[in-house]
Amino acid sequence: MTAVDDRRMTEYFESFEAPEGVKVELLRGEIVMMAGPDVVHNLIVLFVQRQVPVGRWYPLQTQDVDIPAESSEPQPDLVVLPAEAAPESGRLVPASALAMVVEVVSKTSKLRDYVTKRSIYAAGGIPTYLIIDPFQAKCVVLTEPFGAGEEADYRTERTSKFGEPVPLDVLGLTLDTAEFGTLP
User: Residue 85: inside a domain, yes or no?
Assistant: First the structure.
């Protein structure tokens, strides 16, 4: 896509009105729509959010992220940013302000979460990407982003099963996953 095409797509995306209950994201110039999440999904996000110490960190749901070099405005299930880096207002938070993004895998998001968003978040320089997979009962912590575009990735990948502690060094905490539910 050219810069003009990217700008037009972004303008169209920002004016697009999704049906109620539908989540919409701009991923590498494509508008992606998905149904609302399962209760298990929402509870996992809640359990993670409750473990992030508010005051030092702001864990935010339904927050759009600006990754300009990627023509992407993903909406992770949870973003975590230092309290002092939080913008005063606005729909988009710059990727550079984030410490971590969290995606909980759904039936229709597996490829996006494990592949597309992995490279988008790495290209945006987001230090930690946590993938929580209730179908496989595991957490994947990705750190040390490098590269650009679709070739961007994370150098370090650590996998833990549900019930095992998950170290989140970027936040200085260990995530308790004992309450995370699973899906068939």
Answer: yes
Q: Is residue 169 part of a domain?
A: yes
CB-CB contact of 36 with 22 (8 Å): yes
Convert the pLDDT of each residue in 25-64 to its tens digit.
788 888 887 777 889 999 999 999 999 999 899 999 989 9
| Domain membership flag for residue 11 | no
Per-residue pLDDT band at 24 (split at 50, 70, 90): confident
Number of domains forming the structure of the chain: 1
The angle subtended at Cα 36 by Cα 30 and Cα 37, nearest 5°, is 110
**pTM check: above 0.85:** yes
Residue 18 lies in a domain: no
β-partners of residue 156 are 143
Cα 184 from Cα 36, distance rounded (Å): 18
Q: Which among 142, 147, 123 is positioned nearest to 65, based on CA atoms? A: 123
Is pLDDT larger for residue 33 or for residue 137? 137
CATH of the domain at 122: 3.90.1570.10
Beta-sheet strands, E only, within the chain = 22-27, 30-35, 57-60, 64-66, 78-82, 92-94, 100-104, 128-133, 138-146, 153-161, 166-168, 173-175
Q: 108 phi and psi, to 5 degrees?
A: -100, 0
**Parent domain of 59:** 37-175
